């Protein structure tokens, strides 16, 4: 479930590589900062997982290296499969792949999974860490019968760590500085809610109505906190991916808001979307018009992006060769068309 992470056929550590092309909202390279902080953050995450009663495993970073360039770097990680008891019939599945298992067609199963994911991830947030829990980073350990047992999280490069929250729980702050560290509650909640709820759980549910049902069935067992209260009553943050792609000069993530699945679409009323404080009952038409307005600039900016990146073209060609003969139609929103055009051509 990852274009740039290599998993040996015979098993063993996974290798995350730098792929300097835009797949969704940002270039998928590996910053020097991520390499420099990898060991400290991994050790910190391992200690954090010990506070979660075995419900969450975090794959350890085994090594990281860079040639002082984000375009030439790699990270060696534990394989997530090591956290499943394969002898007992357990298996690990990326959340993004759950729809292919057939399990997600069951509303009862989705509610059980949502309850597990929300309980664990909200606890992690309360302790002081906001994970980027989208469908590739978050995996679930399934029983032989398919029941969700516990979670596995991989890739610590873009988590957010709150020193103030850690201190409240008597946890040490890892010896790192920079973008990983923040006490901004909006940043922390956006990081988790946008990736887990709007991303992983939303994609597993398949529709806004199904997501609302899943969350409604899952929230009864949640421990009441300020974070869970915000999740249940406030608009749902989600990354504004197209805006980010068309704003290369703006650093970091840019966000929009969706109506809360559990609050009848408030604020703004049912069926309204909120972007930078604005609401519009005909937002679908506005979205279509905005895409039309930037189509020419999009093609001009990104149409020849791969022409100057021979290494990326080679990696995409190798990926295409590996999946030749299989279904290769990209999912909507999976990345810019020049990238997937190169894969299809391969």
Instruction: Determine Rg (CA atoms, Å).
Output: 20 Å
Secondary-structure-derived class: alpha+beta
The proportion of residues forming helix, as a percent range, comes to 25-40%
Q: Could you give the order of strands across the largest sheet?
A: 1-2-7-6
Distance from N terminus to C terminus (CA atoms, Å) equals 19 Å
The helix tally amounts to: 10
Q: What's the mean pLDDT score?
A: 84
Element-by-element helix/strand order:
EEEEHEEEEHEEEEHHHHEHEEEHHH
Q: Can you tell me the overall shape?
A: globular
Major sheet summary line = 4 strands, antiparallel
**Percent of residues in β-strands:** 15-25%
Low-confidence stretches: 265-283
- Tell how many strands the DSSP assignment holds: 16
Describe this structure as you would to a colleague.
- The structure is a single chain.
- The chain is of the alpha+beta class and 346 residues long.
- The protein has ten helices and 16 strands.
- The strands form six sheets. A four-stranded antiparallel beta sheet has the order 1-2-7-6, with helices on one face.
- Strand 6 and strand 7 form a beta hairpin.
- Helix 9 crosses helix 10.
- The longest helix is centred in the middle third of the chain and has 21 residues.
Put the structure in a nutshell.
The chain has helices at residues 32-49, 107-127, 163-168, 185-205, 208-218, 226-233, 241-245, 283-302, 310-322, 337-345; strands spanning 5-6, 14-17, 19-22, 27-28, 56-58, 61-66, 73-77, 91-94, 129-130, 138-142, 148-153, 160-161, 236-239, 255-258, 273-275, 278-280.
Descriptive labels:
four-stranded antiparallel sheet, 16 strands, 346 residues, four-stranded mixed sheet, alpha+beta
């Amino acid at each position: 479930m990852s274009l740039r992470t290599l998993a040996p056929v015979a098993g063993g550590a996974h290798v995350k590589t730098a792929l300097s092309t835009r797949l969704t909202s940002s270039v998928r390279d590996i910053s020097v900062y991520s390499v420099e902080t990898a060991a400290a953050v991994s050790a910190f995450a391992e200690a954090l997982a010990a506070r979660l009663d075995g419900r969450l495993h975090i794959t350890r970073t085994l090594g990281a290296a860079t040639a002082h360039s984000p375009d030439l770097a790699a990270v060696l990680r534990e394989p997530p499969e090591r956290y499943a008891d394969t002898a007992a019939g357990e298996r690990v599945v990326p959340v993004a792949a759950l729809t292919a298992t057939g399990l997600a067609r069951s509303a009862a199963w989705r509610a059980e999974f949502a309850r597990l994911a929300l309980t664990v991830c909200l606890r992690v947030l309360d302790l002081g860490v906001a994970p980027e829990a989208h469908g590739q980073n978050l995996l679930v350990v399934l029983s032989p019968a398919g029941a969700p047992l516990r979670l596995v999280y991989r890739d610590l490069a873009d988590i957010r760590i709150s020193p103030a929250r850690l201190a409240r729980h008597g946890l040490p702050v890892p010896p790192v500085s920079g973008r990983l560290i923040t006490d901004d509650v909006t940043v922390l909640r956006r990081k988790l809610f946008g990736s887990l709820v709007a991303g992983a759980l939303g994609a597993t549910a398949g529709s806004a109505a199904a997501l609302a049902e899943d969350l409604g069935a899952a929230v009864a067992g949640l421990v009441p906190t300020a974070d869970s209260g915000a999740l249940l009553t406030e608009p749902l943050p989600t990354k504004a991916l197209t805006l980010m792609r068309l704003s290369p000069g703006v650093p970091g993530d840019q966000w929009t808001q969706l109506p809360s699945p559990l609050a009848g679409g408030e604020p703004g009323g049912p069926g309204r979307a909120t972007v930078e404080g604005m609401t519009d009952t005909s937002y679908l038409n506005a979205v279509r018009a905005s895409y039309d307005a930037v189509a020419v600039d999009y093609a001009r900016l990104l149409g020849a992006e791969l022409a100057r990146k021979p290494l990326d073209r080679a990696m995409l060609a190798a990926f295409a060769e590996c999946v030749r003969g299989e279904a290769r139609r990209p999912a909507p929103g999976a990345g810019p068309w020049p990238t997937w055009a190169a894969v299809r051509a391969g």
